[in-house]
Protein: ATP-binding cassette domain-containing protein
Organism: Extibacter muris
Amino acid sequence: MLEVKNLTFKVDENGVERSIVKDISFQVEDGEMLVITGPNGGGKSSLAKVLMGIEDADEGRIVLDGEDITDYDISHRADAGIGFAFQQPPRFKGMTVDKLLSLAAGRPLTEPECCKMLSGVGLCAREYIKREVDATLSGGEMKRLEIATVLAKPHKLCIFDEPEAGIDLWSFSMLVQQFERIHKKKEESLILISHQERIIQMADRIMVIEDGKIGAIGTRDEILPNLLSEGQCACMDRQQEGGN
């Protein structure tokens, strides 16, 4: 279980201190899927980066399965059981897909192991296993590869920051199916940051972040109707038709 207690994150903007995450507290139970949504610029991605240790909290505590990881760096948090998928996955010219998967797993992977991981996210293993992780890969390919790296070893908690960003409808459908499989197994807790209705509908609980604070938190049935009525959910089909 993840416990977040009074978390605050501040940045310095031209000598002026500004709070991006403001005294946030919540929990994620074992096997639970929590979807975080809310207006752009509200602090969702900053919260995710603080949880992963990419940014340091100014105040508050982060506890994972009873272990206080607040002062852990990103590597130690990964060792403690947190996996993270960036909104815009990094590319590594000169690194092949099989090598990246081995690095993510923390051990050398056999070719059959790599192929199984790639097939699990909808990538043809023969076509991708020796490709470089560079600009020749599309946004959808990178997103699926990013998920494969997160799944390369077991985690207690996986965080995905807007996994739908910059991908086509078919790739989005593949990602949704992968999240459904992970969630069904209940072996890992999930935090997904998203505006997409199809992802939000999968949630056990939904948390709305506005202006760095929790605007609402509750079960899907409690929160989703309000989001739909306020038009805060995006539909992937409409986005694709509109060319976005």
Summary: The chain is about 35% helix and 30% strand. Confidence is low (pLDDT under 50) at residues 238-244. The domain at 2-90+154-241 is CATH 3.40.50.300 (Rossmann fold).
